[in-house]
Amino acid sequence: MNLNQITVPSLNLNESFEFYVKLGLKPIVKSLPHYARFECPEGGSTFSIHLVEKLPTGDGVYVYFECKDLDSYVQELQNKGIEFDQLPIDQRWQWREARLKDRDGNQIILYHAGENRLNPPWRIKD
Q1: Cα–Cα distances in Å, from 85 out to 36, 49, 77, 115?
Q2: pTM surpassing 0.85?
Q3: What DSSP designation does 124 have?
């Protein structure tokens, strides 16, 4: 089994579409105003947004995108006008993370974990 895509809800796909293009995702399906799908720049995973009448309550969706050079990428996005809730910071779980929200409040975490992504020191041993 391999993860193919994550889909998040949106009230306005036109705005969301532009946000995710600016974030660096490559559009592969554009069925606005109802649906759009993107290819991640690396790894073969896809990401999509779909129109909803009402957003989920609570914290919403958390989506993690790994970036090789997180700090430079965050600076590049800031230069494009993307605002962050948290600039890159080292976390206690040994990842470096920056956080922002998309137009619908979905939590977007850009991070770099390297080897610790799949093999943290506390990984369960078979």
Answers
A1: 25, 21, 13, 26
A2: yes
A3: P
Q: CB atoms < 10 A from the CB of 62, how many?
A: 12
The model's pLDDT over 3-33, given as tens digits with 9 standing for 90+, comes to: 889 999 999 999 999 999 999 999 999 999 9
- List beta partners, residue 46: 5, 39
DSSP H helical ranges for 11-69? 13-23
Question: Which run of H or E residues covers position 5?
Answer: strand 5-10
Tell me how many degrees the CA angle 84-66-122 measures, rounded to the nearest 5: 110
Amino acid at 2: N
The label of the residue with tokens 């606005």 reads: 32
Give the integer Cα–Cα distance in Å for 79 and 96: 20
Low-confidence ranges of the chain (pLDDT < 50): none
The rounded Cα 82 to chain-centroid distance in angstroms is 13
If one counts every other C-beta atom within 10 angstroms of the C-beta of residue 28, the result is 12
Q: How far apart are CA 57 and CA 123, in angstroms?
A: 32
